[in-house]
Amino acid sequence: MLRDQLILATMWVFGIIGFILFIPRSDRRKGLLSLLVFQAFIWTCDMPAFSYGWLSAPVRIFPKASDLTITINYFFYPVLFSIYYVHKRTKNSLWARFLYYFVGSRVSLYMILFWKDTLIY
Amino acid sequence: MRIDWWILAGVYVVSTGLLFFIPKNKVRLAIVAFLFKQIITFLIGLVVVELGMITYPVRLFASINRTSFTYEHYAFPVACAIFNVWYPYKRGTFVQLGYYIGFSSVLTIAEVIIEKYTDLIKYIHWEWYLSWITICLSFFLSRLFCVWFFSKA
């Protein structure tokens, strides 16, 4: 329980530091917009998933107000996506882009494996 | 109870209808204002419900979320998009101030009426003026964000 909460706290800290460090000042607008867009979309995917009981988040912030995983969907994943989006190179070859997506989705795969051990997801 | 669901549906219809009044050349501004407002209302909505200040007895996704999805994810962000799109930035300070007061008052009056006659929202440790202040403040923040976002870097 305590470990899970520490992980959530770490996500907030690393998310904020990551956003400041990995998004150059000149790309702040692009980074923030991609974060906002991702954040808006992820709820439409997660609302049904949580409603039908495919996902649950026993350890979470605002436990009385919501059963959703606010830390991950409201903050952490959007930050990861904004870092990805700002650094993506559209001029690369198709294979390079595919690899980039592949690595990106791998990150979430490892996270899912990691969640399995906790009560966060 | 039944009328509450009709009101909820009506909110979606009216909000969506308002979107058609956004001029084509200001669609980007509207989207940025909408998304930014969503992020504020979502967080503050969670905080007030968590602290037991407001409840939303009739709501969408009731089994997983105790906040108002309709208001925080759609109706209020749409109002904010309209607010920013028609903002009278060329007019004097008094007109701009009146614009803030007008928008916040209309939304607060609507909320108070809904609170009094329906089960869509119930104040527990909350007052109408707190709604007015937070609504006004969130409009101000969204305006600041939009001005910064579209300023030349």
Descriptive report:
- The complex is a heterodimer of chains A (about 120) and B (about 150).
- Chain A has about 120 residues and is mostly helical.
- Chain A is built from 4 helices and no strands.
- Chain B is mostly helical and about 150 residues long.
- Chain B has 5 helices and 2 strands, in the order ααβααβα.
- Chain B has helices spanning about 1-20, 25-50, 70-85, 95-115, 130-150; strands at about 55, 120-125.
- A two-stranded antiparallel ribbon of chain B has the order 1-2.
- In chain B, helix 4 (about 95-115) packs across helix 5 (about 130-150).
- The longest helix of chain B has 25 residues, at about 95-115.
- The interface of A and B includes residues 26, 50, 51, 62 and 68 of A.
What is the tally of helical segments of chain B?
Answer: 5
Poorly predicted segments of chain B: none
Provide the residue-averaged pLDDT of chain A.
Answer: 83
- Structural class call of chain B reads mainly alpha
Q: What is the overall silhouette of chain B?
A: globular
Strand element count of chain B:
2
The number of strands of chain A is: 0
Order of helices and strands of chain B: HHEHHEH
Quick description:
Chain A is mainly alpha-helical and 121 residues long.
Keywords:
heterodimer, A: 121 residues, mainly alpha, 4 helices, B: mainly alpha
Sequence-ordered SSE layout with sheet pairings:
The complex is a heterodimer of chains A (121) and B (153).
Chain A: H1 2-22, H2 28-51, H3 70-87, H4 94-115
Helix pairs in contact in A: 1-3, 2-3
Chain B: H1 2-19, H2 27-50, E1 54-55, H3 69-85, H4 93-117, E2 122-123, H5 128-150
Antiparallel strand pairs in B: 1-2
